[in-house]
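Honest question from a wet-lab person: if I give you the sequences of every part of a complex, can you actually get the arrangement of the whole thing, not just the pieces? Trying it with mine:
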Amino acid sequence: MKQAMTQNIYDDPRFFKGYSGLPRSVHGLAGAPEWPSLRALLPPLSGASVIDLGCGFGWFCRWAREQGAFDVLGLDVSRNMLERARNETQDPNIRYEIADLEQLMLPAASFDLVYSSLAFHYIVDLDTMLNTVHRALKPGGRLVFSAEHPLLTAPSRPGWTVDGDGRKVWPVDDYLVEGPRTTDWLASGVVKQHRTIATYFRLLREAGFTPAHIEEWGPTDSQIAADPALAEERQRPTFMLFSAFR
Amino acid sequence: MKQAMTQNIYDDPRFFKGYSGLPRSVHGLAGAPEWPSLRALLPPLSGASVIDLGCGFGWFCRWAREQGAFDVLGLDVSRNMLERARNETQDPNIRYEIADLEQLMLPAASFDLVYSSLAFHYIVDLDTMLNTVHRALKPGGRLVFSAEHPLLTAPSRPGWTVDGDGRKVWPVDDYLVEGPRTTDWLASGVVKQHRTIATYFRLLREAGFTPAHIEEWGPTDSQIAADPALAEERQRPTFMLFSAFR
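Yes, you can. This is the full assembly:
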């Protein structure tokens, strides 16, 4: 029997310190360049029951309530992150609970929206989790999530290089070799699960979802004008976004 | 008004000679390593009306009739390829017609299966063509096609390289910069259209299709054992396969 458990890197002091300093941690949703595209995939939230898988500091949970969500449940594996989320939230209709997404248990047919930002690439047993999510959605409910793009996660040694002609390139290998990748990002030994876009699509279908949108995210011209470093996202995307219906 | 026209590289003598020598031209479907995966996406063909967009030498058309298809229409832009297809076919229920897929005209609700192998990445006006294909399928009919994978088509200068550690890698740039790519493959100046997986998915949805399968194709262990050169497909795939329902 599979018994995966999430590597709780977010409670590693060095990782947590680094993560807390990222623009998306300091500025919230506005600090995440892919947020406008992810937001565009959401249903109207007025009166909705919402769950955020990997809620971190609770930015999305609070935003969802501002949009009129009836209640919001934020789950995360990190005690550090939930502590800060609770400190920054005064709203009885937002609950935060500690949870390992590998062992997710949810009530059936209870949510209008399951949301997740950049958490699914940590999940080993994604098929089981997607089955749980599908069952937890009300009929017609929606799953909207982002994950790291397979071009980011594939390489055995990820990194930009410059070729003989001075061209900045992202060398790819092992693209179809799915499974764990250990990288040093904010801390050493961070383990992510590399999966292709086709595999995400297949797992959604097998869990009973109807995929409605796939996005390999890139910045707009005005985002690049405001932050020229984003231009490299057009060379090799970092994020992919999905929406799918129960 | 858009007025795209297919670059008919297949009737370039040098290209045609090179293409005619490829394993898939000499051995037909059995010479294409992705064929077993593509075949697995097909419906039962007994009694079916089938069309092959970019039929080349007619290998698939003849195979479809062997599987019991009622009639098969093969379309291609290349006179050279259709001439050989006609010479190798003795079957009144297989018709070959010259056609530019950019200007495709098809009768409505007439086909059970629209099939295409490695032709769609030549199409500039793919949205119009997919609308035509959708309309030409009977309700419940299926589109099954392969196209070049965006990792193959993306780079401004595609090719394997070896990095400083002796690792064979495929350098990627311009992944989200969709549009024409001019490469030298069998002949110089071959123009293909680079599109991401997400864009293929979106165009299918916008044309009214329900996508059922996406595959970033890789070889099986036994295929690699029989042809070790196929192993590099796991490092960077060449093909993607789709099926979608009207």
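Two things worth pointing out. Chain A is about 30% helix and 30% strand. Residues 126-136 of chain A form the longest helix (11 residues).
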